[in-house]
Amino acid sequence: MPAVGAGRPRIAPTPPFVQEQANATSETSEQRLAEEILRLAFRRRRSADPQDPCAARPCPECFAPHLKKVVRFLETNRPVHLVIPAFPAKSRNRRKVLGKVPDMAERLAIAALQDFCDQVSALYAPGAIMTICSDGHVFSDTLGIPDEHVDEYGAGLRRIIHAVGGGSIGLYGLNDAMPGLGWDERRHRLLGDYAESLEAIRDSVKSDPATKRMFNGIHRFVVEDNVVLLPELSATQRRLRSKRTAYEVVQHSQAWSRLVAETFSDAIRLSIHPQAHHSDKIGFHLLRTTNAWLTPWHGVVLDDGTSYMLVKRAQAEEIGARLVWRHSQPSHFVLATPTIGAS
């Protein structure tokens, strides 16, 4: 007969150093996967300095602001969540865009966001989800865009998201952040709770390269628009008006960015503006463009016979591209022979 206590063999406890090695291996594996996911985003990176070596080969400092966030999603087997303040409303400048509603530019951009989420799912089964933090109502008053036009643009955007049908893209707006209020009251509260003074922003433009870069990009857009929208003003008057508007847009945009960061504190932050390589935001190209600042709401799609790219409407017309209509609305331009190179 077996002795008392005989039977199932005793299992020795795992030595602490072996368990630590196993944990380290798991952490390293998750970090490697997180880096692979981030590399997918960096392939679309909208860089503030395309000549920097990090533009072609991200370094550990490029990953650092985002890596722990991605790892936390992997550890809990949740979809990687990204947020991008974008898709506000069409520019009022008809030398840039076709109209006030979404067109082929938005369709391709939404499809590109869904494609990115699909690529993440090929590496990581739960995939990724993308929240578009639509900021049209944030500065529609500053840019002279009626709130009704922003609503119309948003409704068209929802139809496009539904038509793409990937299920990875959602919308979040000022009405979601502050329900039950009027638009003016929402903007007033946003600025009161999250904005810096215009004087502080002027000081930042002088001292902070990122703020200066953002201001210069917005100012350039506003000047271009005001040439068309305010032809009665002199060049000096337009320049002064444009500078004041640009400061206000930066103020509103930064306030919205702070609200988004607070609301989605665990999400990876994307930006449609060029960003420094080690920033806490990843500049993100929605479509191939002719310059680093062009967006679907400031341009049109040109099919040059080999690929799609974003250009300004006037540029497409100047080279003889033909306007294409879809569903009784202007959609994009077509050119038989490629003549424009993207930057």
Automatic annotation (TrEMBL):
Pfam families: DIT1_PvcA. Residues 1-30 are annotated as: Disordered. Signal peptide: none annotated. It comes from the Bacteria. InterPro entries: Isocyanide_synthase_DIT1. This is L-tyrosine/L-tryptophan isonitrile synthase family protein. The lineage of its organism: Bacteria, Bacillati, Actinomycetota, Actinomycetes, Mycobacteriales.
